[in-house]
Amino acid sequence: MKLKVIVAYDGSAFSGWQSQAHGGAVQDRIEAVLEKITGHRVVVHGSGRTDSGVHALGQCAHFEVPEGSMAPAEWQRALNANLPATVRILSARRAGEDFHARFSASGKVYRYLICHAPVLPPHEAKRSWHVPHEMDLARLGEAGTIFVGRHNFSAFTANRGGVVGDAHRTIHEIAVSRRGTHLSLTFSGEGFLYKMVRMLVGAMVRAAQGRVDLEDLRGRLTNGGPRWNYVAPADGLYLVRVRYENVQRSALVTDANGVASLPR
Asked: What is the pLDDT at residue 246?
């Protein structure tokens, strides 16, 4: 039986999602619990990696268990009873034989949280990026519109050590909203390169601080370089959702007062 699960986790203490040699990833913890329950190794397939320190509200994964062993809801309860409190299986259901958490995905939604207050509340440490310095929030949204659409994002990805393949990706929308001193930047797209969202957030913040010109950002998309080197920290990034259907969305941007509008 193939099970599809939605996983939420606080990534602060983990080395990302994907299995590591030292066993410090979220995938490692779930596989260890499955082995404890079943008595043998069960491989968990995730929709994709999240980096060390990055959180998830809706990571998707699948794995196979013996037919007739337990109902999906019982698997959910058994996993949660053995996982640390920082990892939770939000749902579990039977999936079709042709489903694959990674290869069936049609898009992902990430959210980045910024605290713009003079002092970072202690309970938000490792859960948002503290940017107390002055920012032009209208310019923050304007910078986001530059990245919407299909572009060559080779200037906005880090190299894992191998050869970077096709860096063309489509971003369907970037939504910016504000509540008091808290900013939320939501990215919806077909897929994202290594550290791409964190680099885009860094570029938007630098633009909002007047430290980079908007034409400079446009030029990096057009020319594929030079590589952007200011990366927002992992603390504020959340994988919100993995999509499994075709998505056609407008480039909706919300201004600093929460008013939605289409970019010109």
From this structure: 55
